[in-house]
């Protein structure tokens, strides 16, 4: 992993107050580093429910038509780009040289961030955590936990209030 000052800081940004705090901490701790503000968006194959009986639990889903899928993915990608630009505006207002990255989620958010960190040769990954632990964390995925466990870059977790 590069140790020089050219290696950027990767900040996961979703527009939440916690991700804004992550940008602020990155600016305080790494003021001279280039910053990559990453918003991960999830290209989903939308499905339309088809109810086979009066009981919704016994229904099934079929994929939406390709035009609908493309339209929804385009809207989601555009939204992610807007969110990433918002994060860059915040970072720049704090003095950081920042660039936006709206990245489609291939497997899950954590793996996508790990891949981006490697591709960018990031010095550190900064991410917010809502303080979810235990069973909820296991069920909801725990992006920060997975980053800590699997990222080959240092990970700085900005904690929110525990739920």
Provide a descriptive summary of the structure in words.
With 163 residues, the chain is an alpha/beta fold. The chain has a single domain (9-159), classed as Rossmann fold, CATH 3.40.50.620. 42% of the residues lie in helices and 23% in strands. The protein contains five helices and seven strands, in the order βαβββαβαβααβ. The protein has helices at 17-29, 66-93, 109-120, 134-140, 143-150; strands at 9-12, 35-41, 47-50, 60-63, 98-104, 124-129, 155-159. A five-stranded parallel sheet has the order 5-2-1-6-7, sandwiched between helices. Helix 1 links the parallel strand 1 (9-12) and strand 2. Helix 3 crosses helix 5. The longest helix has 28 residues, at 66-93. Mean pLDDT is 83; it is low at 134-140.
Key words describing this protein structure:
163 residues, Rossmann fold, 23% strand
Chain oligomer state: single chain
- The CATH topology, please? Rossmann fold
Order of helices and strands: EHEEEHEHEHHE
* Rg, Å, rounded: 18 Å
CATH superfamily: HUPs
- Strands of the largest sheet, in order across it? 5-2-1-6-7
For the termini, the CA-CA separation is: 35 Å
What CATH architecture would you give? 3-Layer(aba) Sandwich
* Class from helix and strand fractions: alpha/beta
- Strand element count: 7
Mean pLDDT: 83
Total helices: the number is 5
